[in-house]
Amino acid sequence: MLAFHYDHLTLALPPGHRFPQSKYQMLRERVEREPGRLRLRVAEAATPEALALVHTPDYIDAVLHGTLSAAAQREIGFPWAPGLPRRSLCSVGATVAAARAALEEGVAASLAGGTHHACADKGSGFCVFNDVAVAARLMQAEWHRRHPGGPGLRVLVVDLDVHQGNGTASIFRDDDSVFTLSLHGEKNFPFRKEASDLDVGLPDACGDAVYLDALEGALAEVWTRMADRPPGLAFYLAGADPHEGDRLGRLKLSADALLRRDRRVLDALLERRIPVALSMAGGYGEDLAVTVDIQRQTLSAAAEAWARWQAAGAQ
Length: 315
What we know:
Elements: E1 9-13, H1 22-33, E2 38-42, H2 48-51, H3 57-65, H4 70-76, H5 84-105, E3 107-110, H6 131-146, E4 155-159, H7 166-171, E5 178-185, E6 198-202, H8 208-225, E7 233-237, H9 255-271, E8 276-279, H10 288-314
Parallel strand pairs: 1-2, 1-3, 3-8, 4-5, 4-7, 5-6, 7-8
C-alpha cells in the first residue's frame, strides 16, 4: 500500500489490481512518477452487499460465479474470465473510497471508474457494475445511519463522458434523491438512450466553443432545478473521450478545452461547497499517451480544487 497523507488529494486505487486497460496502468505509473499533490490510497474491493444496493441478485450472482449468458457477455463487450469478478469489485471499491474521502476532504478521485452503461440487471458497453450508482447508494445509506430522522443525502452526477450515461439514468429514473446530468454525443453509443434528469446531446464534430457553451447552460439549469434541495455530494465522470484524437468520441475538443471543462465543473462545485468524487471514465485515443495526458491534467485540476477547498475551510 502506498503512503497516503492528508496534505494531498486522495486517489483511490483498486487493491492488488493490474488494470486490463493499459491506459489505467499508464495513468497510475504517471502519477507515481509525477505525484505533485497526488497520493495513491489503495481501496478495498466492493462487497456483494454493496452491489445489491443497485444491482439485482441474479445479475450479481451471474457475474461472480461465471454464469452470464453468451448474450449478456456480448452486451458487456468481453467474455467472462476468472479475473473479471475481482476486477469489477475492485473498480467499484475505488469509487466508493473516493466518495468517502470526498465527503471528508471535499475532493477525491478514482484512477478508474465511470462504468455508467451498467444497468441494475445487466452490463453493457464494457461496464460490468455501475460504480457511481453503487457508491451513491452506499453513501446515502451511511449518511442515513449517521443522521437518522434528518434529510437524506442528495447526490448530483455530472457525466461528461462522450457517451450517454444510460445505465445511471435508468437506475435513478424517477428518484429525486439523485440528479443525473449527461452531456454527450447525440449520435454516439448508446444508440437507444435512457432519459437522464438533464440530457444535452451534441452533434458530431462539435468543437470547443459549442461544447463549453452547452456545459455552461447545463450547469446553470442544474443549479436552478436543485435550488430547493442542493446536493451534498457530486460524482464527476471526467471522460477524456470528447478529445479530438479519440477513436470513439466523434467530437473535436482540444486538450485545453477539456481542462477548461474540468475547471468549470470543479469551480462550480467548490463555490457551492459540494464535495466531489471524480472518476476517469472513457478515453480511447489513437495515442494512449495523449489520453493519459488529458486524464493527468484532470487530476491536476482536481488537486488545485482540493487545495482551494482546504484553504477555504481553514479560514
